Amino acid sequence: MSMPTRMLRIIIACGGTGGHLFPGIAVAQVLRARGHRVLLLISEKQVDANAAKDHPELDFAAVPAIGLPHLLSPRVLPFAWNFWRTYRATLKILRDFHADAVLGMGGFTALPPALAGRRLGARTFIHESNAIPGKANRLTARFSDVVLLGLADCARHFPGKDTRVVGTPLRAAMLAPPDRAAAYAFFGLDPAKKTLLIMGGSQGARGVNHALQASLPVLDCAATQLIWLTGREDAAEVRAAVAGSGHLAFVAPFHSRLELAYAVADVCIARSGASSLAELAHFGVATILIPLPTAAEDHQTKNAEVFARQEAAVHLRQADATAENLGGLVRDLLTDDPRRQALAARLHALGVSDTAEQVAAVIEATGRLPSR
Q1: CA dist 261 to 46, 162, 182, 194, 275, Å?
Q2: Mean model confidence pLDDT for the chain
Q3: What is the pTM of this model?
């Protein structure tokens, strides 16, 4: 890794959701290793506080989270007041930190720091992981010098902007080669069986959980085992269904060591958030994508369509994820080795493992050098 000739002071705004937070941490780790000073701006949510505790080597500052309400909503006035307060707070943080560059990882948490950075003369960057940008990133991009993209399809939504396709940053834990034998032992699974991984995001996916429970009789319990991350609300119900089916399984509301699950998964059923797609591509797991239909801007469907067009994943609408359709699709993928392996290989070919390094290089090349 080549080291920069000058140290930069960089703010990364990445709070609010895991999809913004963990990629921001990944970039911060690389920038810090390259000799720069980094401060991460996070929200006051518990998920952000937990991540800060897990990374004592990094510097964090919490700012109030904001979200844009409907323009006709009575919440517009409170939003405007909170936005102003957050902007003033971030302006002071950037001024005290003497920031040379500001990187926003998406969402409205990134807008006040981008505005503050622009006012103070720092170089500003925004990262958009999805195939279609949300309202926050469309707005923040207006105040950004460079727009970093996870998917090339998104570039058309930023006409006239300097866009760079870099992928979605992966956590350091995802990049270390996992010990498959240790992973099987961790989950209490059998290396001789095919493993189906089911994950619906941090809150789980009730529609997917119910369809899969009804599909269990279709899946041969002698040859198939499960890692099922259910979300909090469905954990007890799924455990009961799995116990009655005879499948060897690891069932939990969520799991922080996803790299271990990816390492042993033969097929995965997942939503199509950008971070999950980047992780699945890195590990090369044959995947059935069932987008969250209520996601903002329907961005998960757009993400799934990008991968389905390249035959790198199977796209199944939630409305079509019936027991018959989903169960048959899972059974076919688990038993058809050539098809499953080809799907996994095409997905893996789309993965970008050095995104954090690419982002760091762009910031180093275009970030303001300190004059002090």
Answers
A1: 24, 37, 11, 13, 15
A2: 90
A3: 0.90
